[in-house]
């Protein structure tokens, strides 16, 4: 290329130009010719070619944003579960057809190169997947946004099973490099830890507090492009990697102190090594807090110093940014901004607090008290002494306000305090976020109601205007258009392709649910998706399933409140009833139960539940008397890539958490949008799904949230439920007998003990209702025309669950940000 060759994005997109760019990248970027290139060489060259076509839009977006200074949403999240990037970037750049034809001419399969990409495991589940959906939608809606997070070197662990038990292995997603990231070590940010705080007097005679850290690390930004669909906007995701300022001591090394010579490097790099380090030890807790402070300190300094113009008046900061706190992980950003303004810029406390309360908004993602983070003051004071002082001052002023508002009600004051006194003195991060934030939102209608009425009820009474709801959504680009191309093609043929940016247009499919030919084509696509999923499972995991059985899917983080145990009890009950002759085998619809779940490394009971699921699966799958009618598939290391194969194949979506415990869920939305029917409780976003798709197209079971509360209040006895239900008793007794553990009656005892003892999330209480609902599933599935009609109506009526709609709601109810079109 000579200097007069125009940039690739300025030229016409043709197969010929794409081929030239691909071969140029292969030759000069990878240093190989086509004949000697490995699969990874070809993938890297392809990825870098695609990113060239996006970069002009990205650079122009950055230039326009700096010039126009429009309001920005800064999405602070400890997780961004992105999935593979190639397909999404081919879609947004409109290059898939050109790339496929170009590679075909070179004798290369695009589909083969897709399989080379390793997805970054930068999230654990719904929280990270939601963050990825949101930044995708903001770009598609032309809203200026920066996503801020951590570039975990190993991300979430790679799950393996050894004798059915979960084993955590490093997820080496960076082993072969990432073509989508742009490192900028020259823009590194310095972050301190530990040390002490002292009084100083500046040159103007003003006294202030000065933090003297004991150690510092550098945060190196890695930028990722976030292209919008059908627009020229390309926003930025900025992930921080921890590095030591002085990583290597040559003198110590030469003296033989090899480990000591790299001590600083080890300390620094541990911070961004692994997502959610196991925190059952004091060291693990400290590392988690280090991670949280590290990425928000980097992000705030980056925005104030590198994104804003040097002469920007920070008193106008609320006009330029909203920092959205995605759960409690980033809440330490509140005292960090105060430190930046008061300590480093000499602001008065009143001015700094006035600005701080206008720039933070808080999304709560839980109803479980144990999931609302608290940090012991001893740990926080040790690691971030100045921040603890600032939090104490915020709380002091807040308590004064409470005592003025509620004179004499010291119990309420203590209950609302940011500082908890028992069982140890600790900072309640959700309380801090609520006091500092100008808005607090839940993520589904029921969740937001319970947040206002129960979890943060005192705060909602004090500041009712702060509380709002934004129901979650998912991006239709990845989870319909990319994941389910055949169904997407059928939908586009029927109503055009406008639905990809306006998912409400799916409602135009509703009349086609009555069209027998459309139902047949829809069924054929579902059947083909099942065959494809069966192929992937066999190649990926060595798991063989029937390509024509009902696919019954329960994929989510392994937690007791998600109630994987309830699903398992149903499976064991079916197996027991068939074995005893109570249920004729010929009456059972062939069904594949698919589990996908990781347990937190320190969550012992969750790991025991995984082992039990695998043990039951091994026994059932090996039982020839079942004639293959029941099958349990639990592929290890469930991720976005596998989700994109399972979700289009699924017939039944299991959303069976105890009512009042799930904040929202997003898997429930993905399955409905791809034509699966839901069996679920009235919990989280299930409530809204059922209301929209219709009771007749949703299998509701279980107690309502008020009924759960009543049963808790009256005294719940799982032993009594067990004794009163013969099917439940038989299923539990079969597990206890050692039938799934080679006769060992003790192996799975912890799971049984948890169910018969406390049964915290009332799996036994909802068992009978759940089994009855599954019987309705069985009967309805036998009427393939009725099932197909319901499946199509689920798709047609689920357009509300687009993350594009969620983002519009955030803009209207919280951020006040506006779309800014990119015309170039």
TrEMBL record:
The modification N6-(pyridoxal phosphate)lysine is found at residue 670. Its cofactor is pyridoxal 5'-phosphate. Its EC number is 2.4.1.1. It catalyses: [(1->4)-alpha-D-glucosyl](n) + phosphate = [(1->4)-alpha-D-glucosyl](n-1) + alpha-D-glucose 1-phosphate. SUPFAM superfamilies: UDP-Glycosyltransferase/glycogen phosphorylase. It is an enzyme of class 2 (transferase). Keywords: Carbohydrate metabolism, Glycosyltransferase, Pyridoxal phosphate, Transferase. PROSITE patterns: PHOSPHORYLASE (PS00102). One of its GO terms (molecular function) is pyridoxal phosphate binding. GO terms for biological process: glycogen catabolic process. Allosteric enzyme that catalyzes the rate-limiting step in glycogen catabolism, the phosphorolytic cleavage of glycogen to produce glucose-1-phosphate, and plays a central role in maintaining cellular and organismal glucose homeostasis. This is Alpha-1,4 glucan phosphorylase. It comes from Demequina activiva. The lineage of its organism: Bacteria, Bacillati, Actinomycetota, Actinomycetes, Micrococcales.
